[in-house]
């Protein structure tokens, strides 16, 4: 993803989504040549010159102040995630060298093994780096998936066993695309992430449409509705735990309110797969998978 082009497309998409009336401006010029706000209207609302905003949208500004970006965020009514994304597009520079997948440390693997709740560890590209027995029972044994294909967002689209679990698949998948775009902004120039976006764009029309919408969101908790082939309907809360000792790793844990049918179903799954080991790709396997 070329950052200059992405910055311009992102700002254009967000301009188009805001009507003049929504921000207290007269809808002069009817019909309007462009949907939403014009560049000069964004500049007015952000208290910046039209020329400066235009150069920013065209990628001809090498840096932007926090005040300027905050003004644009207010003008375009960006969410906190979209504001962060704008900041990363403008200020983050491509990393030099390899984008190695972080290894999961032994203490974190021990924590996974000790948890009865399904849990897994994701890398910066949503790669599943480690998982416990509960996660294998809930989703699948990720060891069956080639290492290079273990991105969770990829499996949501292209792995039938994962895709078929989600009752509201379209919502889950669209949100996954938004998170992938945020991940791409955090790691500009990552060739594996670029290949992942390309692969999903080729194979899935929904992915192409959602990627073209320029939505972004951060990884946060929520509730997922699943239909499991063994225990049936599940409503699970999922929590995000940042691994402070490994900046690029995130743990996801899935729980259900105690006493609920879903809690009992998780208990059954845990008993059914109690002896499954905690697994993770070895550095050698990851290398071979590429």
UniProtKB/TrEMBL annotation:
Organism: Nocardia aurantiaca
Lineage: superkingdom: Bacteria
Residues of the HTH cro/C1-type domain: 10-83
CDD domains: HTH_XRE
UniProt protein name: Helix-turn-helix domain-containing protein
Xref: Pfam families: HTH_31, MLTR_LBD
GO molecular function, one term: DNA binding
SUPFAM superfamilies xref list: lambda repressor-like DNA-binding domains (SSF47413)
